[in-house]
Amino acid sequence: MQGPALLILTALADTPRHGYGILQEVTALSEGRVRMRTGTLYGALDRLQGQGLIQVEREEVVDGRARRFYRLTPSGRSALAEEIGHLHTVVTEAHRRLGAGPAGGLGASTA
Question: For domain 3-100, which architecture applies?
Answer without folding.
Answer: Orthogonal Bundle (1.10)
